[in-house]
Amino acid sequence: MNAAAALLTDGSVVTVRELGPDDVPALLELHRGLPVEDRYLRFFSTSPRQLEDFVERMISPDAPRHVVLGAFRENRLLGAASYVVVRETDFAEVALVVSHAEQTHGVGTLLLEHLASLARSRGVRRFTAEVLTINGRMLRVFTDMGLVTGIVPDGEVVYVELVLEPGDTYLDAMSARESVADVASLAHVLRPASIAVIGAGRSPESVGHAVLRNLLKGCFTGDLYAVNPHAKSVAGVDCYGSVSELPEAPELAVLCVPAKAVPAVAEECGRRGVKALVVISSGVDAEELLKAVRARGMRLVGPNCLGVSTSAPGVRMNATFAADRTLAGGIGVATQSGGIAIGVQEELRRLGLGLSNLVSTGDKLDISSNDLLMWWEHDQDTRIIALYLESFGNPRKFARLARRVAAAKPVLAIRAATSEAGQRAAASHTASTATPSVTRDALFRQAGVIAVDSVPELTDAVMALSWQPLPSGRSVAVLSNAGGLGVLAADACMRQGLHVAELGDKTRTALAELVPTTASLHNPVDTTAVVDEETFARCLDIIGADPAVDAVITVTVPTALGDPTAGVHNVDGKPVLAVRTGQTERLAGEVPCYAEPARAAAALARLVERAEWLARPREFARLSRMDLDAARALVADRDGWLPPDEVVSLLNAFGLPVLGGTLTTTVEHAVAAQQAYDCPVALKAVADDLLHKSKGGGVELGVTDAGAVAEAFRAFQERFGDRLRGVFVQPMATGGRELLVGVVTDEKFGPLVVTGLGGVDTDLLDDRAAALAPLSTADADDLLHGFRTAGHVLADADEEAVRDVLLRVAELAGALPEVVELDINPLLLTETGCVVVDARVRVAPAQPSDPFLRRLRTT
User: Fold this and answer.
1) Which residue numbers delimit the N-acetyltransferase domain (predicted)?
2) Using one digit for the tens of pLDDT, what is the confidence trace for 457-480?
3) What is the reported pTM?
4) What top-level class would CATH report for the domain 4-165?
5) Which tens digits make up the pLDDT trace of 277-302?
6) Where do the domains of the chain lie?
7) Rounded distance between C-alpha atoms, residue 587 and residue 480, angstroms
8) Fold of 665-726
């Protein structure tokens, strides 16, 4: 395995790598340094015999069944984890040793995580261990992993078994450990006790000068230093010639030096003991910078970034070169673009909304949105999170993190250009759907991330989320003193998928007693232009009390007869959003006010979106009738489209309802197959480069006798010649509507499951829904009803049976990374079930991958 950098629970960085013969002295030193008690717990003896021979055997190249990983901090071995494969089995005996001084920092757990990941990639399925009963600390390490399936005491020894399949329990436990470590390391960036600005220029127009000035203006609470070999002081702060000349090692260094100097300055910072860097400079040699950062165990923001800020009273840090100060508040912002960061900050500041943190990740060589989600999850000052992402470094980890964080705090993201992940020449119907935007939007939707398309949309949604409760449904009432604008508001609500509420008789009667007879008492309610603010306020109370109303949008304009805007106020338990043409602000009582009806309707739709996502069930179904071993054997070491009989076997291994059939290679064989089925059959040519059989003339339906079978077979031979590999004979499936179900797997995002209109017309309408695996039951329901023609396709269908198919297809895709494309078309739906009539599967050798493993970027 390649060396990996990772965080311990105290936030320090270690390197994890496989040990070799050159590491014998370090491994011996580790064992010899153990106190007597630790040595006894490790070897069941205080004086292990022939320790040198034992260590040399562990990492001998002549013992390929032995694997040892070590964790290093600046070339010092802190601990080692090893396994030995039991001969001709898929399980291994595991052992662990950690320096006594490091046993409370998570070294052992981190090593076991990496060892389990490496073992899985090499075909090991289980770990076993023998632990002394008195060794409670080691038993906790094993049980806290989230993999333990068996603990059997036997006298003084406990036998532990760990199944290495990474289920939700394990992934949740690993993610929780990662959060603890990440938060500890990010404290050096977001809550530093001291900062040095390196490259603080004397010119007020220089970036370094601006950063230093902002730190001074913001009243940073810690120690502040400036580094400039050509000045005695900058902005009143004493200067030092280099980092090494500083009176103490600053916790955070902000680098504003020329790009070519950055790696050397970073290395100098590391030697001095700096814990974290913010690199403002652009055009930096990324490889050299990251090499210096990792070698010295530092965290890094940037390069090519605006900087970072924290508004907490105990910190008050504005280490950016933004023109204006950061207003204190509860919104955490992370953005790859410095311009977007400034735009969001300025717009929120204008509305009186402040930030808890602003992090401009720039080229994000190290710290990314994933790290910041973990910080904000635990930060009590942050109530709402806003992101601008141009690319995803680890989208699968992001999805799990965002789903967990969004359950407690709103997470918003501005949609931006997605990386090339997912773009490929598509051979199947499913793959043609998997554009970057489809994949990204599926990730956001399932993770509970509220996606918007612009800075104004973001701030509109943040206003509503900051000041108003979530609605209990989609029914909206519009109250206006200008009828035309009220109609526009109602139309805007309908475009956003909201419902215009039907007001009750009691509500209309109460309104009639307040407003002129020319008023409209039906939703949208038009009070006419003559009502005053007190009357408007009473109308709002009446409408808000109607049980059919979940939210209210008010639209007001000033007239010569009065301005009822001051009558807009909060209604208990229901969101109220105001519209006043040309005005975006906060009204009295924290009612958000928008410049036009469409913006208010869009913001309300984001509140509804969050409420509905929070109400979704989170269950992941437990599926039976699956044979993973048989499925893995079918796809192992294969490359290309599977023949139809193997496709049937693969789908059967996951309990999918497959029609089945017989692959034949001669006319006689085909005739025999038809006669055995004793019913009309479909004949499907299996030929090279024939993916869409119907379009390519490779299907004959309703064949009823031996003569017709022979004629169709020979027609295929003539049509496809040497390309023909056989003819698949299937009994005809009749009745029901047709659905497309498919999978396309992306290296970064994982499997994308697609549904839509099936049959020969699937490409004509391009009507599909998509979701990323794994699928919860709610995700499966969204897929089932998420395409335009779903109502037609699912009419009279057994939805429970179709949902089961979607969940099983997602399980197949998740369990078999070798499956890169799968097309079920059609899945035939009936009132009593469904059946897979035709399917294609393309496989390719899968590179070992573990997107959830705890590690930092090293290249």
Assistant:
1) 14-165
2) 999 999 999 999 999 999 999 999
3) 0.92
4) alpha beta
5) 999 999 999 999 999 999 999 999 99
6) 4-165, 469-615, 665-726
7) 16
8) Dna Ligase; domain 1 (3.30.1490)
